[in-house]
Amino acid sequence: MRNSDFIVGKVPITKEEVRAVSIMKLDLVNAKRFIDVGAGTGSVTVEAAYNYPNLEVISIERNDDALDLINKNVEKFKLKNVEVIKAYAPIDIEEQVDAIFLGGTGNRLDEILLWSKEKLVPGGRLVANFIIVETFNETLRLLRKYGFKNIDVSVMNISKLEKLGTGEYFKPLNPIYIISCEKGRE
Question: Is 47 helix (H, G, I), strand (E, B) or coil?
Answer without folding.
Answer: helix
